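Annotated sample (chain length 323).
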Amino acid sequence: MEPNIYNKEPTIGSANWGESKNWSYKNLKVHFRVTGKDSNPPIVLIHGFGASSDHWRNNAEIFASAGYRVYGIDLIGFGRSEQNLQSKVRHLNNQFWGNQLASFLDQIVDTHKNGKVILIGNSLGALTAITTLSERPELIKTIIAAPLPEPVFINPIKLFLPSWLIKVKSFLIKLFFHFLPLNILVNLISRTKLITYALQSAYFRSISNDKSLKRIVTFPARRVNASKALRAMCIGMSNRLDSAKGPSILAKIQNLPNRPPILLIWGKQDKLIPIFLAKKLIKFHPWLKLTVINEAGHCLHDELPKHFNQIVLKWLKDLKTSK
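Output written by the structure step:
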């Protein structure tokens, strides 16, 4: 069966949606937004790399008006959450963020009281969502990954290296990112027209006049400890074990006894993770469902929000009626 393809729709919305709040995880400040009645079923929105809860500017209030309690979390190192990690946290990766998200579901969303949560993630946010699912499946009703990164290898990674070589590799990665002038690079990109070129790679439509989008991305990048957080991410993501990478996580989820359904939503013109990889992914994992949005790039939830929101709400409605 061919994936569904939807057409283009203009975007509107405000980054300052809902109520802005803070929470503490491992003594680090976590910023999040929330909107909708607290008695409604919970949705948690998880942003992608370089973004924040603000990036759900065109989605959160629509989901709230459809009868959901909607949260948007800023992962540690991003948005308005803590960037000055110091000795508290040495490195950042999807395992760390997955644990952060699980604690957020336990303490703030309170799934024990309010029921299992719906997770919607963009790219890195989707990887964080499935990481949480692989460890805490009892918390999650369904995941919508828009899109899911790390499908390149498709098959679970089976690469066995001697421990000494792993240590050498880890040391060289740390050395490289220690001497890489990330503070200069971050300032250069965030304070010049390079930010427009970088953002454009994630969109199909032109974003040259989208001042709100540029503010969403440049604000965290211009914070004093942005380069420190980025260095922690680069080292953490580069030094992960194979078990912490997308293919291995999906293989683990596949064997869950009560596996929640997962919907993939992909932009047909995604330059960062091309659509052929999505199609290859669902051939290897036919239990995944795929919907494709035409004339959309990597940030399709922000680029074509009307169609994205329709797909999400239809998926959730179908889940209710299938019970």
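Annotation: The radius of gyration is 19 Å.
Annotation: Residues 163-179 form the longest helix (17 residues).
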